[in-house]
């Protein structure tokens, strides 16, 4: 259900680590690997920990951190560069990362300025 700002309340189930571990073990078997061999025996747990970190903010409401404004009294272009981001391709579950650059002209906060 949305609130007056358009935010959507989402329950955050978190990452079910034991379930991820079972799924990774099954995946290893499905591709012909031996999940009990020395190089892979801890892999399901490692993947589960990584998933918990990578998807930890998946169900957070962006407006909780983006709905802040500051009246600084100027109208110049604001540029923020080199913002790191990390994500996962939803089609292949392959992680990717990069940097974003954002530029915007702040809205007028004081309505008396026309």
3D structure, described in words:
It is a single chain. The chain has 114 residues and is an alpha+beta fold. It has a single domain (17-113), classed as Orthogonal Bundle (GTP Cyclohydrolase I, Chain A, domain 1), CATH 1.10.286. Helix content is 26%, strand content 18%. The chain is built from three helices and two strands, in the order H-H-H-E-E. The chain has helices at 17-30, 43-54, 63-66; strands at residues 78-88, 95-104. It has a two-stranded antiparallel ribbon. A hairpin with a 6-residue loop joins strand 1 (78-88) and strand 2. Helix 1 (17-30) crosses helix 2 (43-54).
Q: Report the mean per-residue pLDDT as an integer.
A: 84
In one word, what is the shape?
elongated
User: In the residues, how many domains can be counted?
Assistant: 1
Largest sheet: 2 strands, antiparallel
Estimated structural class: alpha+beta
User: Rounded to an integer, what's the Rg over CA atoms?
Assistant: 21 Å
Query: Which fold name is given in CATH as the topology?
Result: GTP Cyclohydrolase I, Chain A, domain 1
Give the helix level as a range of percent: 25-40%
List the helices and strands and how they pair.
Elements: H1 17-30, H2 43-54, H3 63-66, E1 78-88, E2 95-104
Antiparallel strand pairs: 1-2
Short characterization:
The protein is of the alpha+beta class and about 110 residues long.
